């Protein structure tokens, strides 16, 4: 599993924070790789490409709008790797119930940078 994200403003990185959560809360005990230099979604994709060149499947997991954006960026940067994308469980009923409407609005706002054909969910 690859966690990607640079400095979080609290002296650590987003990648390390997510890896720690996966291990301590979710009891993940598999292989973990960290990409801890990126500061934007575009850089997340750019910086993990060398780590995913030889994989059979690629699953991008994040908040739904962010995951959609990341998948679109992978398609722009490396269509050959984007062909290996598999569907992730972006939406889980009841998750983040009270803030979901705000996240949806924010997600729509951030997706404005995508072309209309990139705003659709596909595998």
UniProtKB/TrEMBL annotation:
Protein name: DUF218 domain-containing protein
Domain of life of the source: Bacteria
Pfam family for this entry, one: DUF218
Provenance organism: Streptomyces griseorubiginosus
Domain DUF218 intervals: 1-78
InterPro entries for this protein: DUF218, Rossmann-like_a/b/a_fold
């Amino acid at each position: 599993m690859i966690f990607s994200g640079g400095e979080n403003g609290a002296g650590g990185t987003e990648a390390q924070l997510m890896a720690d959560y996966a291990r301590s809360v979710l009891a993940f005990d598999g292989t973990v790789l960290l990409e801890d230099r990126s500061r934007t979604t575009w850089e997340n994709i750019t910086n993990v490409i060398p780590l995913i060149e030889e994989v059979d499947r690629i699953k991008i997991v994040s908040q739904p709008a962010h995951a959609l954006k990341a998948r679109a960026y992978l398609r722009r940067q490396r269509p050959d790797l984007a062909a290996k994308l598999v569907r992730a469980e972006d939406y889980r009923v009841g998750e983040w119930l009270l803030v979901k409407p705000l996240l949806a609005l924010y997600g729509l706002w951030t997706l404005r940078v995508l072309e209309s054909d990139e705003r659709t969910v596909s595998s």
